[in-house]
Design a protein that fits this description.
Length: 64
């Protein structure tokens, strides 16, 4: 599904979805996750990945 179609189906901003695609570690509110999951026909938990603190620091460039 394209970002544009997902935006239309979920009601989430195209820019927010695009930013999440570019930076999967970006902070996002649960309401947006739920709307995206509903539009995709999946559980919101499928959109969340549990990563270690070390991996998160490496991927985001943010230290403790």
């Amino acid at each position: 599904m394209s970002i544009n179609k997902l935006s239309q189906c979920s009601g989430a901003s195209y820019h927010i979805i695009s930013a999440l695609c570019s930076d999967p570690c970006r902070a996002v509110i649960t309401d947006i996750l739920q709307r995206l999951a509903s539009a995709l026909g999946i559980s919101a938990t499928k959109l969340i990945e549990d990563v270690s603190d070390e991996q998160w620091s490496r991927e985001t460039g943010k230290g403790d």
